[in-house]
Design goal:
Elements (H helix, E strand, L loop, with lengths): L9 E2 L5 E4 L6 E2 L11 E8 L2 E4 L23 E9 L13 E5 L12 E2 L13 E9 L3 E11 L1 E6 L2 E2 L16 E2 L1 E4 L7 E10 L1 H4 L17 E10 L4 E5 L5 E4 L2 E5 L3 E5 L19 E2 L1 E2 L7 E2 L6 E7 L3 E4 L5 E17 L6 E7 L2 E2 L2 E2 L10 E5 L6 E3 L6 E9 L10 E8 L5 E5 L2 H17 L17 H14 L3 H14 L31 H13 L2 H22 L31 H22 L3 H22 L11 H9 L5 H17 L11 H9 L4 H9 L6 H6 L35 H8 L2 E3 L6 E4 L9 E8 L2 E10 L2 E8 L4 E4 L7 E3 L2 E6 L9
Helix pairs in contact: 3-5, 3-14, 4-5, 4-6, 5-6, 6-7, 7-8, 9-10, 9-11, 11-12
Length: 864
């Protein structure tokens, strides 16, 4: 009997292999339960020209293994499977189940499609009615295979013969459009039939030409056209092909969507909608006119690196309350990102209006925090019977919705909130004996979901929703535990590199859009610009992808070189625009950067930290000279930091929690300074009864700074504080996501008066990484979790915790519980990995793959 077979192969960081944009995709697999370790593997590739086998390859590598044969050509489909040998095994395992990878359009010359859209005159400064485009075509035989390669200037949804293609939302997402426009490949074989067929697309403004950004937004950031770019390739049974590409033969007409905007919401007039519009029968309906064709460099069309945005969950309202004037207020019990789907019937012309908000104030929707993102959807009924509808090209951040104009009384089944975000695979879970901490962790998860909408945004509800570099820099360790976000962040970091200025400056947010007067022109800023060095390193540590580290290394190097020039020979970065410890709770509502910590202390600390990580990355990539140079630079900056900011008593010139947290967490102090500095940090925390006094910079670091320097008890005091400001204060106030400000809602229920008050902002939720590593006890010791550390450090009255993470190699888990005599711990080490377990009061213990039960009350024996 053959040993158990490994998992099916996966390709790069993608959920499937269809339409891949890499000619030599890397391959990954996990070992079967009980395999222990892999001594060798063999890959089989079934290609159109025959079958290729690598033969036995003596290697333990199983993650992102190089493609073993000739590069893929455009459209080529290859079936891949793997088998392995365990150490000392004479025979290999059975083959894995086969999995297919299929190349997209890898060469610009493969594209025949051009952008097509409405040809009628429009006012580019005004709100414009979206168009639909369509094309009738005839297929002369039975379809063997059909692929649709599609993207747009703006947003699109495609139908073929009246059936929706795919299920993604807000496609093609937001990239630096002039350089990278993402297209997606769909298998549409089942949509087509011999004879007459029709393809059509709904179009929307989206980020391309919609009004977007601060103070109500800027229109036409990337262009004034709204265009589809689509190439349908059909292969018949006899091997011949037909290509239907967007060109001058397509037709356009106004659709039933009257207005649509990411901020504004959507208005849909069902009286103007013919459900058969994208079928052959719909060719004579409406006012279809010739399209206007545009141009697009096909060299800028790129395949996705990660999954699309989708609806991932549906939530029914918890309560529906009728107001005295006939409106209906719905509470979904969870602050979420998505839109409402309604089923409603009423007379023609009946207008149903849906408004959204995250919180209530005085019993009404609190819309002031939305600023100029009005978040209003409007449905005009046709009178043709019950209609199920949801908007297509907008998303809202909300827990509460107000419905006006509903004919009769809406039931809970008639209104559903549909949750949307990038459909990343969930990989991390945590729970413990404290229900408030569990709710905090759930809030972090929900804030990540709501803000990973094609790119990592700051907030999902107001007139902003931008890819702030500092926010994800501090949150990336948490994000990469909770979800498989490697592809999404790799794609976004590619755009960060494209937006990097020639001098090395990293923008505050990416993609870059107008941000006068504060954010434009762009200035280099610590913690935000350091995303260039720190986030690729985090992703390498968590996903084991050395090529990702290599791709983004030039960007990281240019950033550190810039800061070196700005700091000059004294190695102190004490000039320029700095945000410091953004949103320190002591900062006034209208000046979030005016916190307690010297912003140049923060800048110099990050300079040292980034130089150190650049040296680590250079060493990992084999650039030994650079590794030595940047390691020396990091030492010089740390020396300069101590000379300028550390007093002879080991106190810092900024006597604040954040100052001590960065100095300790970034390793900027010499050994004899660390103890006194840590003691002072603990004093500062306890002097305010363990209320939070840190902002975006200090908050992700303070618990580690305390934990690693003898003050674990104080870190738990911080975690478990319920008075404002604190993590659990927000929980006691009913929060279901992480807030932007510690006091976004005041204890009396009023809202923070600042113009920047979000109730869904993940940055301050970066403490979840400490929960996973310290309370839960799971941390990587080598890239990709090939080696793990299981080291729970209980405190604060928490008596048990369960933590699980799906590493690239398989599931790692730790469930511990305190007993009268010590601790019991159930540990799962992934196949192919090794681990060290260090339970309280015990020496470290080496563990191999499999299940282990440890008990500190007696002799520690590993039990499989």
């Amino acid at each position: 009997m053959l040993p158990p077979r490994p998992s099916p192969v996966t390709f790069e960081h993608l959920p499937d292999g269809l339409g891949i944009g890499v000619a030599s995709p890397r391959l990954s697999w996990t070992l079967p339960p009980g395999a222990g370790r892999q001594a060798a593997y063999e890959l089989e590739l079934v290609r159109p020209g025959g079958t290729y086998r690598t033969g036995r390859i003596d290697s333990a590598e199983q993650i992102l293994v190089p493609w073993p044969h000739d590069e893929l050509t455009s459209r080529e489909r290859v079936e891949v499977r793997v088998r392995l040998w365990q150490p000392d095994a004479g025979v290999p395992s059975d083959w894995s189940a086969p999995r297919s990878v299929e190349a997209g359009l890898l060469d610009p010359s493969d594209w025949r499609a051009v952008p097509v859209g409405a040809a009628w005159d429009e006012d580019p400064a005004a709100e414009r009615r979206p168009a639909r485009v369509r094309k009738d075509f005839r297929l002369r035989g039975n379809v063997a295979r059909a692929r649709l390669h599609v993207t747009a200037h703006g947003l699109y949804e495609v139908e073929i013969n009246g059936t929706r293609v795919g299920d993604e939302a807000l496609a093609p997402g937001w990239t630096v459009y002039p350089e990278r426009l993402r297209y997606r490949t769909h298998d549409v074989t089942a949509h087509l039939t011999e004879g007459e067929n029709t393809i059509g697309a709904w179009l929307g403004d989206g980020w391309y030409r919609g009004k977007y950004g601060f103070d109500g937004g800027t229109r036409n950031i990337y262009g004034t056209d709204q265009s589809l770019i689509a190439q349908l390739e059909v292969e018949y049974d006899d091997g011949t092909t037909t290509v239907v590409a967007t060109d001058e033969t397509w037709r356009a007409a106004p659709g039933p969507i009257l207005t649509s905007g990411l901020y504004e919401g959507e208005t849909f007039d069902a009286r103007l909608h013919d459900p058969a519009w994208a079928t052959p029968a719909g060719s004579g309906t409406g006012e279809w006119t010739p399209v206007r064709t545009g141009s697009r460099d096909p060299g800028t069309l790129v395949a996705p690196l990660g999954p699309p945005v989708r609806c991932t969950e549906e939530i029914a309202p918890v309560t529906i309350t009728r107001t005295e004037d006939g409106r209906h207020l719905l509470d979904f019990g969870q602050n979420l990102v998505g839109r409402l789907r309604v089923t409603v019937d009423g007379p023609a012309g009946t207008t149903v209006t849906l408004r959204h908000a995250e919180v209530l104030e005085h019993g009404e929707l609190a819309t002031r925090p939305l600023r100029e993102a009005y978040s209003v959807d409007t449905l005009i009924l046709s009178g043709g019977g019950p209609l199920t509808w949801e908007p297509r090209f907008t998303l809202h951040g909300f827990r509460y919705a107000e419905i006006s104009g509903w004919p009769g009384e809406p039931t809970s089944g008639a209104v559903t909130a549909r949750v949307h975000h990038t459909d990343m695979r969930r990989t991390g879970w945590f729970e413990c004996s404290d229900p408030l901490v569990n709710r905090l962790h759930e809030n972090v998860v929900w804030s990540m979901r709501g803000n990973f909408v094609d790119l990592p945004t700051d907030c999902p509800q107001r007139d902003e929703r931008l890819g702030w570099t500092g926010d994800i820099q501090v949150f990336a360790p948490t994000a990469s535990f909770l979800h498989d976000c490697a592809g999404l962040l790799d794609s976004w970091l590619t755009d960060v590199g494209l937006e990097q200025l020639p001098d090395g400056t990293i923008p505050w947010y990416v993609p870059v859009i107008p941000g006068e007067p504060m954010w434009t022109p762009i200035h280099p800023g610590a913690a935000w610009g350091d995303v260039a060095t720190l986030t690729p390193w985090t992703l390498f540590q968590r996903f084991g992808d050395r090529e990702l580290l290599r791709r983004h290394h030039p960007m990281a190097k240019a950033w550190v070189d810039l800061v070196e020039r700005l700091a000059g020979p004294d190695r102190l970065w004490d000039t320029g625009v700095q945000l410091g410890d953004w949103l320190d709770p002591a900062a006034p509502p209208d000046d979030p950067a005016a916190g307690r910590t010297d912003r140049y202390l923060v800048a110099t600390a990050y300079f040292a930290h980034s130089a150190r990580h650049l040296a680590l990355a250079a060493a990992e990539l084999g650039h030994q000279a650079d590794a030595a140079r940047y390691s020396s630079l990091a030492d010089e900056v740390a020396d300069a930091f101590r000379r300028r900011y550390v007093l002879p008593t080991a106190r810092l010139t900024s006597d604040s929690a954040t100052a001590y947290a960065v100095a300790l967490a970034f390793g900027l102090l010499v050994p004899e300074q660390r103890g006194p500095a840590a003691d002072r940090l603990a004093e500062i925390v306890l002097a305010d009864d363990a209320r939070i006094s840190t902002g975006f910079v200090g908050t992700p670091l303070i618990c580690d700074a305390l934990t690693d320097h003898g003050h674990l008890d104080v870190a738990y005091r911080l975690l478990l504080q319920t008075e404002c400001p604190s993590w659990l204060y927000t929980v006691t106030m009913g929060a279901t996501t992480v807030w932007e400000r510690w006091d976004s809602m005041r204890p009396d229920g009023t809202l923070n008066p600042g113009g920047m008050t979000s109730f869904n902002h993940y940055a301050l939720g970066a403490v979840a990484d400490w929960l996973h590593r310290v309370v839960g006890g799971i941390a990587p010791s080598a890239a990709g979790y090939r080696e793990l550390s299981f080291r729970p450090r209980p405190g604060g009255g928490i008596t048990w915790a369960r933590t699980r993470h799906d590493t690239p190699y398989g599931t790692a888990a730790l469930s511990w519980e305190l007993t009268a005599a010590g601790m019991t711990a159930h540990i799962t080490v992934p196949e192919g990995c090794s681990a060290t377990a260090e339970l309280p009061g015990c020496a470290p213990l080496s563990l191999g793959p499999g299940e282990h039960l440890l008990d500190t009350s007696g002799p520690r024996a590993a039990v499989a």
